[in-house]
Amino acid sequence: MTESLAKISSMLESARDLTIEVAASASSRLSETPSALRPKEISKLLNSRVDRDNLSGMKCVISSIARGEDGLPYFADVVKNITSANSKVKNLVLIYLTRYAEVEPDTALLSINSIQKSLNDKNPIDRATAIRSMAGIRIASIAPILLLCIKRTISDPSPLVRASTAIAIGKVYDMENTKNKQLLEYLSKLLADSNSQVVGTALKTYFKVMPHLKSNHKKWEPMHGNFRRFCNIVRELDEWSQSFMIEILTEYSRVFLPRPKLYLKNDSSQVIDLPDDYSKIPFQEYEVSMDKDLQLFVDSLKPLIYSRSEFVILSISKALSSLTPPRIYKELQINVALSQLASSLNNIQVSLYALHTIASLSSSDQTIFSPYFKKFYVYPTDPVSISIVKLQILSLLANEDNVKYIFEELKYYSVNSMEIKIANEAIRAIGSCSQISPYWNEKILKWCLKQIKILGGSSLNELLTVIRYLIQQKQNFMDVKEKEDIIKSSYRLSLVLQDGRSNLESEAKASIIWIIGEFTEAANNSIGPDVLRLLIKTFALESEIVRYETLVLSAKILSFELDKVKNEVGDDNSLAIEEFLQENIVSQMFQHVLQLAKYDPSYDTRDRARMFNVLLNTGSKQSQLASLFLRVPKPVPLSTLFSKGINSNEFSTTNVLLKYFNIIEWADPSTHPPSSIRKVAPIQSNNLGGKIVSISSSSMHNKSTSPEPLSEHAISSRQYQNSNVDKIIPKPVYHLQSLDEFFGSEEESEEEESDEEDSEDEEEEDSEEEESEEDSEDEANENKGIEEEETKSEVDIESDSDENGSENQ
Asked: Which residue in 15, 595, 663, 743 is a FRET match for 640, CA 20 to 30 A apart?
């Protein structure tokens, strides 16, 4: 006994060593082959009769494709291996076919029959791979075969095969001239499947197919009977399926459900429909009234707020912002989840999407995220794109309660940030904070004026833009105090312009000149003439933009003086006006600048000089036109319009999620169908025999949840009782035996087995005679009966051997 075991073990070890040597030699032979001869070696492996060589050849082909090489030369050799009994080889061939079948359609058609036969395989994984691969071979001529295969596999007992069928339907829709009505019917059956895995895959395919369905009836018909059921089984779906389902039901709700009603708290007489823009809600405190189905959908989203998937959180955010008021948004605490998602740097792209979502919502209602403003502070490790959006959000969330904290943060970023883009965005955010109150306007203006000598480059240009905006805000009030602030600000800017140590860039100097000229009327023209006198001295040395702004400044100053003289002497006194133009120092400086600009190398400067000469030197009528042209109030700079909802469209155009949040409009309530259309449709349940059984909603325990799916590895007690599977015979219990008892029982069992084999041969002969007379269905039943008798007889033999062993003991 021991010698025989030793021989067997030595034989196994030698076989193992031989297998390893053969595999190593094959791989080394291929690696040592020159690259020019390697295709021939791969072709030899693919044409070999040994499965191991075929597998090695397929691995070489797939790896070469992965490296970017062309695998088309091996097409004929690869397709021949579609009939291989090795599942690994077959799967690699299917992967190859889905990539190159369109290039060689005629040769690829030779493999369709073999793939179609795989649909009869006992292994559900092979059946699922077959239907998925057949749909991946994008040849229009096999579309009728594909439809027949899909019709067959939608009723397959395995959920894996039915889920793969849903994927195949999506691939067939991508093929030309295959928009068959039957495909939508098949997809509708899969949407009503009892297994959540199948439903999830069908939802993904339906989301892909939706753009191809132009008719609203065809587009939404599968959703009516499944709306309530989907709301109840959403937790059973995978994360991507949940995201797609939320997107679909959100759009469905906008089309077939009425808007929520908002009515004033303690006063139900004041009722409005939910506006698209949160900022248009007139109530501070309000109650919400929703349709029952819409309430069901919103309630189904509550457990998903704690999902680990970022895409589910973003989908919920879109759904709630599209269907509910801000109160529901805050009650479900999606603002907390979205804030945490935005502050996570595990996925920068997802964080960026979350931040843009927050910015878009905050532009309409800042109260949603204002309690969590500290989560949007910029960290040194933040990328530039995320930092910029965070700064925009901080400017949108600033209010009387938190502006002192936000302002301190923004000051630090604007002065100390090493990234120019972040510093510039921080300065723009500071300008938007000035809108909170006049106090903060004045405080921010003082800080900006102090930073002019510190900052430089593009940051200084942004700072001057903010100063211009702050002064324009003060000009709107025009009381005594505001006028004094404008004069002080203009005077400080003039000192900076005169300081030779400031070393201002051309754009910054031109901005200061423009600000002084724009507000020279508010300062009663007390600062502009002196600044112009200094600029004329260095006119020839300045850059083009500074020379141009100097010309405009001289025209604004003269226009103000002309209007002042006209008010004193009257418009008809032309002699007094001409005398003023000849003797006044401001007029003389203007004439000097015109003479300098006449020979300026810039075409724009020369053209503008000729225009000012006509308007200001040819009479009172033209001077009125010049006054209107030069002293009209200018608009607010566009860089600050994104804040506080000012012209929010300007902000939305820069939002990367604009297309994502662009959802269909609410439908007219008069076009809504009755709510009975959403009555739960029968659920398609597939039993082990492959038959489809419809389960009504009344059997779902007052909920439209899916019945327990059939498992591929185990059968629950309920399935065991309801299925047609025979009772499983328990395994016999083994007892300890001596060697003599063991060999004695083994001899008896061998004799009984030989007798049983003789009886089985006789039964097989009888069955063969019956098979020639009966149809295919009776053949299957007979074979099943024979197999059952064989299993019972084998169990009886084993039990008899156990009894004999126990008697010998």
From this structure: 663
Q: Quote the CA–CA distance of 200 and 109 in Å, as a whole number.
A: 32
Q: What three-state secondary structure class fits 402?
A: coil
What's the residue count for the chain?
Answer: 809
Q: How many CA atoms lie within 13 A of 796 on its CB side?
A: 9
Which pair of structure tokens corresponds to residue 99?
Answer: 């990539």
Strands 271-273 and 261-264: antiparallel
C-alpha distances (whole Å) from 179 to each of 160, 174, 188, 210, 770 are 24, 9, 15, 12, 47
686 phi and psi angles, rounded to 5 deg: -100, 125
Q: At what angle do helices 334-343 and 348-364 cross, to 10 degrees?
A: 140
pLDDT band at 775 (very low <50, low <70, confident <90, very high): very low
Task: Specify the residue for token string 């680990």.
Answer: 308
d(CA 44, CA 40): 6
Element (H, E) at 109: none
Of the options 1.10.606.20, 1.25.10.10, 1.10.1760.20, 3.40.190.170, the CATH number for the domain spanning 39-237: 1.25.10.10
- Chain segment 13-64, per-residue pLDDT in tens: 665 655 555 444 544 444 444 454 578 888 888 988 888 999 999 999 999 8
* Residue with the larger pLDDT of the pair 437 and 796: 437
Secondary structure string (H, E, C) spanning 27-90:
HHHHHHCCCCCHHHHHHHHHHCCCHHHHHHHHHHHHHHHHCCCCCHHHHHHHHHHHHCCCHHHH
Triad 633, 636, 641: Cα angle to 5°: 160
Question: Which 3-state string (H, E, C) describes 453-496?
Answer: CCCCHHHHHHHHHHHHHHHHHHHHHCCHHHHHHHHHHHHHHHHH
Nearest to 80 by CA among 65, 67, 61, 63: 61
More confident residue, 587 or 8: 587
Q: Residues 62-77: pLDDT tens digits?
A: 998 998 888 888 888 8
Pair 410, 391: CB distance under 8 Å? yes
Judge residue 652's burial from the number of C-beta atoms within 10 Å of its C-beta, 0-12 exposed, 13-18 middle, 19 or more buried. middle
Q: How far apart are CA 239 and CA 540, in angstroms?
A: 68
Q: 10-24 burial, b if ≥16 CB within 10 A, otherwise e?
A: eeeeeeeeeeeeeee
Mean pLDDT over the full length of the chain: 78
One-letter amino acid at 155 equals S
The tens digit of pLDDT for each residue in 420-433 reads 999 999 999 998 88
